[in-house]
Amino acid sequence: MPNPEFLLCSKGIGRSWFRDYFMSDVFPHARVITAQGTPAPVPRFYKTLLKEIGHDLALDMSFRSAQNSEKNYERRISEDQPGRRAARTIYAQSKNGIFPRELKG
Q: CA-CA distance, 99 to 28, in Å (whole number)?
């Protein structure tokens, strides 16, 4: 059995961050930005806190989140076309220096 201190989750670590930054940084975009700089879905804890503030706000954010995922899906489909994949491969190879250059001397 695990130690007793690990049996309960903390009940307030993210509340102060939510209070200070959520409405200005996360709510307008319906996503969070990770430490690596990539967008990610809003954590469930923050969605629960948003429902406590107002159910309409939570519905609004979930609607915008669904719209964002729909846009991302359409973008992924266009990026997955064979011609686009080939172009990305050529660009990545040239960026990584796989194509050797002939030195003129």
A: 43
Own/partner long-range contacts of 9-18 (Cβ < 8 Å, ≥24 apart): 14/43, 14/45, 14/46, 14/49, 15/49, 18/46, 18/49
What pTM value is reported for the model?
A: 0.53
Reported as a single tens digit per residue, the pLDDT across 39-50 is 888 888 888 888
Dig out the tokens for 72 from the structure: 């991302």
Going by C-beta distance under 8 Å and a sequence separation of 6 or more, which residues neighbour residue 68? 29, 30, 31
Find tokens 């996503």 and name the residue: 31
Burial of 60 (0-12, 13-18, 19+ CB in 10 A): middle
